[in-house]
Amino acid sequence: MAKRWYVIHTYSGYENKVKDDLEHRIESFGLDDVVVDIKIPTEEVTELKEGGKRETKDAKVFPGYVLVRMELDDNSWAVVRNTPGVTGFVGIEGKPTPLSRDEFDKIMRRTERKAVTPKRMATNLEIGQSIRVVNGPLKDFDGQISEVMPDAGKVKVMLTIFGRETPVELTLDQVAAIS
After folding, report:
1. Rounded to the nearest 10 degrees, how much is the dihedral formed by the CA atoms of 116, 118, 120, 125?
2. Which residue, of 23, 39, 93, 142, has the fewest CB within 10 Å?
3. If you average pLDDT over residues 168-172, what whole number do you get?
4. Is 161 a residue whose pLDDT tops 50?
5. CA distance 158 to 25
6. d(Cα 22, Cα 13) in Å, to the nearest integer?
7. DSSP string of 64-116, one letter each residue
8. 100 burial class (0-12, 13-18, 19+ CB within 10 angstroms)?
9. How far apart are CA 80 and CA 36, in angstroms?
10. Helix residue spans in the chain (DSSP H)
11. pTM for the structure as a whole
């Protein structure tokens, strides 16, 4: 019988635990030749944190789901289905439905993508240039650029607030040059 990829549903957040438990159960039941691979689809995600810092981490593509490549029979089904944290197989009318090769390839292509790091933002803004804030809580204030941070997508601007010059950090989409 052919080994196919099946999708199992798990409690969200327990995917890694289910994978570990399933690997131990497969070994203890001697099913190494029946259940041959387990994957948790993840992709690298870059988040922009406070202060313009970037943090790259792996995020699950389908939280609550694990892919299992196996030869489906009553014994292998029972071992996988009765693993703690597994709520069932994905399928029609309770019958596990294997992924087509095309479906599996699409899922894995998504997980193999490299993290797209935002390119340095092009800006025509320069230190000393006059700008107007065009959106946000400081909309319609005028000021002068004191620092340009294209990697973070920000500028530091000196705005006159309550009669005092105040440095304010704004994103590039919040300002427009005054000509």
Report:
1. 160
2. 93
3. 88
4. yes
5. 63
6. 15
7. TEEEEEE---HHHHHHHHTSTTEEEE-EETTEE-PPPHHHHHHHHHHHHPPP-
8. exposed
9. 12
10. 15-28, 74-81, 101-112
11. 0.59
